[in-house]
Every structure is written in C-alpha cells, then in structure tokens.
Amino acid sequence: MAIDLVAPGQGNVAFRASVVENAETVLPVSAASATITRGGRRVLDEFSLTVGDAPGLVAILGPNGAGKTLALRVLAGLIMPDKGQVTWAGHPPDRSRVRRIGVVFQRPVMLKRSALENVAYALRVAGASRSDAVARAAAALEDAGLLTLAHSPARRLSGGEQQRLALARAMALDPELLFLDEPTANVDPASMAAIEDRLACATKRGLRIALVTQNIAQARRLADRVIFMHRGRVGEDGDAASFFAGPATDAARRYVAGEIVA
Amino acid sequence: MADEFLQALGLIGRLDADLADIVGRSLAVSLSAVAAAALLALPFGALLATHVFPGRAVLVVLVNTLMGLPPVVVGLAVYLMLSASGPMGPLQLLYTPAAMIIAQAILVFPILAALTREALVAIEEDLGEQLSVFGVTPFERAGTLLWETRAALATALLAGFGRAIAEVGAVLIVGGNIAHVTRTMTTTIALETSKGELALALALGVILILVAGLVNAAVALLKSWNDLAQPARV
User: I need a surface site. Which of A124, A201, A232, B85 has the fewest CB within 10 A?
Assistant: First the structure.
C-alpha cells in the first residue's frame, strides 16, 4: 500500500506511508521522467537522474530557472512530481528512511534555540538519548569550529556561521547522501572556504554529496561528477574533468564560458 | 470627586475585604476561562494551521470573525443554554462563577484559536521543510511548532486574559452580579456607578487599569524575549 500524504507541489513532505522492506539504505536515489508543471510551464521536464550510486561529490550546475533546486527537492522526497517517479534504493521515498538523507538549504533554517540545541534536537528526533545527543552535538560543533558558539542563540549567528551550523547538524545525523542547495550563496569568503573544506573532507571519508551550485569555480574545486541542467532537464551528465575540459552541449559551453544562458 | 478618589486609594491601600473579594473573584474567573479556552483553542488553532481538510477556509473565516464577538450576545447565548428551560438547565449553573467562566471562555476561544493559527502558519512556513528533513512525526512536529511559537502563544493567552477581565456584558447576564458570589470588578463598577457610590468603582477602575498595564508590560517583555531569538544578520 502506498498513500500520497501531500499533493504535488505543496512544498511539504511527500513521503509515502508504505512499509518498505530493507528500509536501511536509500542509495541510489533516482528520478525517472519526473515532471512538474507550474503556471503552465514545465519547470521540471522529464527529469531523470541517479545520484549516490558512487562515492564522491556531484555538482548540479545550470543557469537560473534550470530547475536545480526543484530537482534537489524532488530527489530528497520533499516534493512529489506531477508525473514520473522518485525512488530511494528502488522504493518510493518513505518516512522511515528520511534521516538517511541530509539536506542543507540555501537559507539556513534554525530553531529558536542555542547552536548546540539545534544539533541536539535533530539527534533527539533521530532517536538519540538526551546525553548522547548533547555529546554528539558538541562533537559536531567542534568539528565545524563552532564549539565556542555552542550556547549562542542560533538565529543570532552570522549567515556564514548559521550555514556552517546547518551543515554540522546535517552531518551529525550521519546521512548516506547529503543534498546541499547553494550552501555558500550568501556567506562570506571565510565561511565559504570552511564549508568547502568540510565538504572535501567528508567526501574523502566516503560521504556522498549532491551539491547544487551556481559557482563554477566551486564545482571545479569540489566535484567528481557534474550534472548540467537546462530548462528543467539534464543537459549533460559526466565526470567533472571531462565536463570542464569540453562541455558537449552549446548551452553548457556558454554557461562555463560565463555567458548568460536563457 | 477628589474625595471619592482619595477614598478609592484608601480602599486599595488598606486592602479592603470587599475589594479583595471582588478582585480575587475576577482574577479567578478570567484565569479559569482563559485556561479552559486554551485547552481547546490551542489544539484547534494548531489543527487549522497544519492540516488541510474540507471546510478549513470557512472555519478560519469564522474564527477570525468571532474574535469580535459582542460580550452581551455571548452572555445571552450562554443564558439561553443555562436557563431552566435550556439544554444545560439541569446543571443549574446560571448565576454561578461557572457560568461566568463558560461565557468568558467562549469569548476568549476565537482569539486564542486565531492567534495560535496565525503564529503556527508563520512558523510552519519557516521550519516546515526542515522538520520534514529531520523526519519528525506529526506529534513531534506539532510539539516543536508550539514550542517555537511559545512567545506568540503566551502573548495570545495574555490578550485573551485582557479581553476576559475587561468584559462586563456577558458576566453580568449569566452571573447576575450577586454580592460575594458572582460580583466581579467590571460588574461592580457598573453597579456602584449607577448607585452614585464612586469610591469602590474608582478603586476597582484603578486596579483594572493596573491589571491591563501589567498584561501589556508582560506582552512587551515576551516580545523582546522573542526578538532575541530572531535572525540578526541573515
């Protein structure tokens, strides 16, 4: 039995209330012919992609309006497509496995609590005991270089600090796959460097990451694989070195060259 | 006039027994009404904010409309329910503090429900997707959203209390303004003023204004406490 909890495009949980055997893993995460239409326009058009099938960082590039963020939300199970399907390890997204996927949004979302309590909350919800959650939260903040801010109200931190905290919170949950939606778009250079450093280290340790970014230089620095999206579709999908050496499509070539791609 | 005012201050200063009795009853009735209303209104407001169901939009409009319920109309409705020939007549609650609590709770309910809904809608927009990422259960979601809006909910409770403690029409109709039984600050002010006995009325007026001032101060304090948790530079 599988019941849609939320109608497509409502921007809320779209997990299916199904019981999935072997509910441990979510990998690989796939979309097949996913289509979302808004205002008569196909903002995601027969979108098909698999991520998390191999270690490394996948950069999802593309111009504004290409559907990158929407694609991320669809793959993360936050939005159900109007048509097509999304699967985690071959099964529809379900609440029992949602914690195996981490998501960091472009605008960090913080609870009205301290930095430490923000991380501890996520761990508590995931089933950790209070003492374990606090200890693991403190360790996560230390890894992120935020331990001195542990007891500061999270919403009073700077944008860069909040984003580093959001990343620390997501990584503390030990996800199999981490989705990041332009995490450095609104942060200062020092925070960007810190975030990129964490991502590089996490990738080396085996965490699989899908990073939506407009920052081509960042993709060059971090990506093992590049997906170029254009007009709601996957325009190119290949290893990063090949992509940056010579994009196959005209749109990708112009995008990498810094031209405006409509 | 000045004499009456000095007498009023004297009543307050020496904690006059009648004055204390009336103030105590007023506070007890209004606090009980707010507590009773909150038990139903907070979950109802949360339901309106977080669940989609047929008729929700109509209920939202209805609740918002009822925020301006005239107290005398509520008093009349409760009177009809509790009168001997009414559906709740056998309970014999008319002209008791319980009847006044019921009337004030009905007055306060839409205020609490509407303000709760507004607060939760705003916080759901802010946090909803992140909570989904955390994999919270519906119960955890509701609890978290309520906790995250604690300052706004406390403000709503204070607003409800302000409405209850200051109203006169409903408690006058269903309480009957019986001395030492159902007499409250507002009904006493109305009665004493009509009798030309202004000292007690003025004393109660001063206390009512003090209570209103304290409620507003508490609201301001809660607001500043809440503002501390708001984003500063993002």
Answer: B85
